[in-house]
Structure prediction request, 332 residues.
Amino acid sequence: MNILITGATGFIASHTIVELHKAGHNIIGIDNLSNSSEEIIDKIAMITGEKIEFHKVDICDCQTLKTILSGKQIDCCMHFAGLKAVGESVAKPIEYYDNNIGGTITLLKVLKEIDCKNIIFSSSATVYGTPEFIPITEDCPKGICTNPYGWTKSMIEQILFDLQHADNSWNIVVLRYFNPIGAHPSGIIGENPNGIPNNLMPYITQVAFGKREKLFVYGNDYDTHDGTGVRDYIHVVDLAKGHVKALKALEDNCGLDIFNLGTGHGYSVLEVVKTFEKVNGVKIPYEIVARRPGDIAICYASSDKASKKLGWQAELSLEDMCRDSWNFQKRG
Ligand code: WQD
Prediction:
């Protein structure tokens, strides 16, 4: 298939391009490069042996998007592009709603114009808010998001649901990621956030690298086995493979379907720290501090539906995630 990838130089998209290439698909990548650089396209080529077609364009720029895409045969769009820093979204809600939701609406209009009505959307477990039950299945009710970033994911899902309801010639797959971490085993691509990392694993690897003095553990008074937050960490390569498998749902003319992409297992912050130390032979100094506003205690998936309907399940372990994250950080 000819696949349009938005946010192509991002963490999840870049790893997905590697797996799509491996599966024989043809990729057109677009990105506004606001949060990464075009050298990622070269790095992907170092892994796959082939440079994809890439265009620097913002999904909010309707005219340029039309110019680039008109006349192209696009079978499916995988939509990753979006601002995704939780804390930043609280400070800049208008930018997040404008970019993430406005950009998606523009993209959908252009896709319709070029007669591409197959889309896989990069969503997030954050749409469940404080989940009603654990493990979380896809029919768990969506909840109250704790930040504008989460709301943009939830609102975009609703836009897609309404679009498909209004025009059933659309095939829409929503993938709800849990906590993607790790890096390609080559260490050539991985998670490289700008500034101070919001997320746990890049912060840990920067502490190990000596870039940060210590990890601040946000609370040890949650109702979990060791008091620290529990999350469903999934290797980014497993997540990428889930996107390849999700194409099957489009080929089956699914109409609209939703899948959790998680491992089905929760690990606490301290379990991640201890595993990272053991696997990599490094010490991670940490200090327990106050809870982070908006954090929930426990979040992990049931991935049974993806297993049954897509024939996908995560295969890599927390040890693999820790090893590959550190390998990427060390390559710098
Ligand atoms: C994990 C755990 C923290 C940093 C968010 C988004 C989600 C997705 C993944 C984009 C929690 C603890 C963290 C630190 C810590 N993002 N922690 N010290 O919050 O589960 O999910 O990122 O797609 O949509 O909501 O991930 O990695 O920030 O936190 O103690 O310096 O680590 O409290 O328990 P989170 P996270």
